[in-house]
């Protein structure tokens, strides 16, 4: 496996890990909201963004190495977006759990 192969694989693994973290946060928000309580529009917007990012991960996994943009590999793709989304979810969890 080449360095590019390793780098691409690491990025996908990191994205999947972050996606799992987001799913855990969404579950915590759902649990904190309680049964029968509507999830507010903020959470719905965050879930929509999470789904968009999950779709991005799936597209990345299907790409051949020739299709990977070197700049995307160097910058780790949309990692900043993932971090911002996770922070928003964490703030929502804190608000609901406390």
Mind explaining what this structure looks like?
The model has no long low-confidence stretch (mean pLDDT 76). The chain has 98 residues and is mostly helical. The protein has one domain. 13% of the residues are buried. The protein has four helices and no strands. It is elongated and about 50 Å long. The longest helix is centred in the first third of the chain and has 31 residues, at 3-33.
Poorly predicted parts: none
The separation of the N and C termini measures 48 Å
User: Multimeric state of these chains?
Assistant: single chain
Give the overall pLDDT as a whole number. Answer: 76
- Rg: 16 Å
Report the major sheet: none
What percent of the residues sit in helical stretches (DSSP H or I)? over 70%
Look at the helices and sheets and give the structural class: mainly alpha
Q: How many distinct helices?
A: 4
Number of strands: 0
Order of helices and strands: HHHH
Beta-strand percent range: under 5%
Count of folded domains: 1
Q: Which term fits the overall shape?
A: elongated
What characteristics describe this protein?
98 residues; mainly alpha; 80% helix; 0% strand
What does the secondary structure layout of this molecule look like, with pairings?
Blueprint: H1 3-33, H2 41-62, H3 70-75, H4 79-97
Helix pairs in contact: 1-2, 1-4, 2-4
């Amino acid at each position: 496996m080449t360095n590019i192969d390793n780098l691409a694989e690491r990025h996908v693994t990191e994205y999947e890990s972050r996606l799992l973290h987001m799913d855990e946060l969404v579950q915590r928000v759902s649990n904190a909201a309680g049964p029968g309580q509507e999830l507010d529009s903020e959470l719905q917007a965050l879930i929509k963004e999470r789904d968009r990012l999950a779709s991005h991960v799936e597209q990345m996994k299907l790409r051949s190495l020739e299709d990977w943009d070197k700049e995307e590999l160097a910058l780790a793709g949309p990692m900043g977006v993932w971090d911002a989304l996770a922070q928003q979810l964490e703030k929502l969890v804190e608000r609901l759990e406390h």
